[in-house]
Structure to design on (338 residues):
């Protein structure tokens, strides 16, 4: 986003309008934190603002301020489409290609509303009139903070906004341990704490929510963990039957892939999760150093993301997907050996 666009955006935001704010499908902490944080900010200008999530998201995010106002496109499609059709502004947060909005992508594409993208993933599409894209950022929540600052409105950040933005930065940086965490990130976090974000409470609400069945599922995932030491790679598989056995709920596998990456000498980790309802295998990829899981996922598994964190999918069976993954790895032996 170039600075010459800020006055235009300031004019747009100064005029009350019908606004829709959208996260990506299967929203995570950064997606919901950024959308709800922006929701609270825009409400200070007396806009009619609606957050519409493409589908449901984990319970450990549903304590966020004003979460109860979020609409779910998957289960409230008619209501959501009417609101999208009426919208004058649409903010898309934490994604940069409309297909990442799942079944609501067509509604967004057909909308005549002015679109504003705020996102930190690589290779953005050009569907939005205003694009704030920065792959160096820790999170979309940090970018929303910057967006508010560019508009000269940091004084409008109250405890609700601060709580939402802190949550997204914390979750997308792995509690501030990922390489994308910068000194600027810590400055933003410090300011959010001054403005009402209670760091200890937020960490507890995100992380201290394990159910007995989730811990059992984690145990099974650890049993399924495989290591390919010569390629410094670890991977985990979870079949639909295993998910069903342990009463899987959305969000239960969050963070599982990081256990593989935590192994000594491992720089590439993956988890493959069978989803029979959608007929796919969902894939999460993590890496250390310069090995790009974004490029790996884009090349082989219809996905993308960041250098060290990406996702993908496969329409093959779980077994065939694993066979493909293992067969591809030797192509990257030199990169994985560095």
């Amino acid at each position: 986003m170039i600075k010459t666009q800020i006055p235009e955006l300031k004019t747009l935001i100064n005029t009350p309008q019908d606004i829709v704010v959208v996260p990506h499908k299967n929203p995570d902490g950064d997606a919901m934190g950024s959308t709800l944080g922006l929701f609270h900010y825009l409400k200070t200008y007396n806009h009619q603002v609606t957050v519409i999530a493409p589908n449901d998201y984990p319970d450990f995010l549903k304590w966020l301020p004003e979460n109860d106002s979020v609409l779910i496109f998957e289960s409230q499609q008619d209501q959501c489409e009417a609101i999208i059709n009426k919208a004058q502004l649409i903010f898309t947060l934490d994604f940069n290609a409309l297909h990442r909005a799942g079944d609501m992508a067509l509604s967004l594409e057909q909308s005549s509303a002015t679109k504003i993208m705020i996102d930190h993933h690589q290779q953005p599409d050009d569907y939005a009139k205003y694009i704030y894209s920065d792959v160096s950022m820790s999170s979309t929540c940090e970018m929303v903070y910057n967006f508010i600052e560019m508009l000269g409105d940091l004084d409008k950040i109250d405890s609700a906004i601060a709580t939402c933005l802190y949550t997204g930065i914390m979750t997308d940086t792995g509690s501030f341990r990922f390489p994308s965490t910068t000194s600027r990130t810590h400055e933003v976090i410090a300011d959010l704490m001054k403005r009402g974000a209670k760091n200890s409470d937020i960490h507890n609400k995100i992380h201290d929510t394990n159910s007995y069945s989730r811990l059992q599922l984690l145990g099974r995932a650890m049993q399924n963990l495989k290591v390919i030491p010569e390629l410094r790679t670890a991977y985990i598989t979870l079949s639909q039957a295993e998910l069903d056995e342990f009463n899987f709920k959305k969000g239960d596998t969050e963070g599982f892939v990081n256990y593989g990456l935590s192994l000594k000498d491992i720089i590439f980790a993956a988890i493959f999760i069978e989803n029979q309802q959608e007929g796919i295998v969902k894939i999460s990829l993590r890496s250390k150093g310069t090995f790009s899981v974004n490029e790996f996922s884009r090349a082989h598994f219809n996905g993308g993301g960041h250098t060290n964190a990406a996702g993908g999918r496969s329409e093959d069976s779980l077994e065939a997907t694993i066979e493909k993954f293992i067969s591809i790895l030797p192509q990257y032996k030199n990169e994985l050996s560095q």
Notes: Residues 119 and 140 are 5 Å apart (CA to CA). The chain has two domains: 3-207, 212-337.
